[in-house]
Amino acid sequence: MLGFGLSIEPQLWALLFTMVRVGAAFVAAPVFGAVAVPLPVRITLSGAIGILVLNSQSYAVPTEVFALTTFVSIAAEILVGLTIGFILQIAFAAPLVASELIGTSMGIGFAQAVDPLNGTSSPALGQFLSILLTLLFLSVDGHLILVDLIVRSYQALPPGAAWIAPERLRNIAFFGGYAFLAGLLLALPVGFLLLCLNLVVGMLSRSAPAMNLFAVGLPASLAVGVVALMIALPAMGDYMLVIVHETIEMTSTLVLGG
Fold it and tell me: What is the pTM of this model?
């Protein structure tokens, strides 16, 4: 029942209610939440996964649409979906942090471009690392794991009892610092080498004050940074896989409780 004497097909209402959590997760999650993904595609995927959830899980759907309890249940569904997507999105913030550290040391921090995934301006190096992380995320079936997490969330947090405990919300907020830790470790090989180069250039400038620091230091930083990126890229790719796996594991632990 809609309330006010109106009615709706029960199966259609159950599907729409199920799509709330799925759609909220897709809005905040990486890949699916990208600006390049059209809205009809998200709605279609949400409906398809909603049908999967209805056929695999059994839970009670609010009987009336225009009721206070229904609005509260919808708010809880949105909270769970956004939480799942937000934790996964933390992994995709690490390349941006790493690119800021590396780009500033290389002297290309001013190189900004529109990020096709988020629709915002970000460092060019950050776009390259973000695309690499996206490809690695898809290569380990991260999109399928996301769908599995959403489906399992209906069993761990069924509608009507989907409010996340304050302790979990606090742990999720603290987990946001993982983006800075992962970004620092991701930039560590190249950043440490560039730091050593800057120390050498600084000592040369003190020993030879007549030397043009900008004419020597900036080209050297750019050249060393490019070479260091080429050498460290395999190791950075391996650590990106570690970031993806740890974030997926933490999503299951923080939201689903294990």
Answer: 0.79
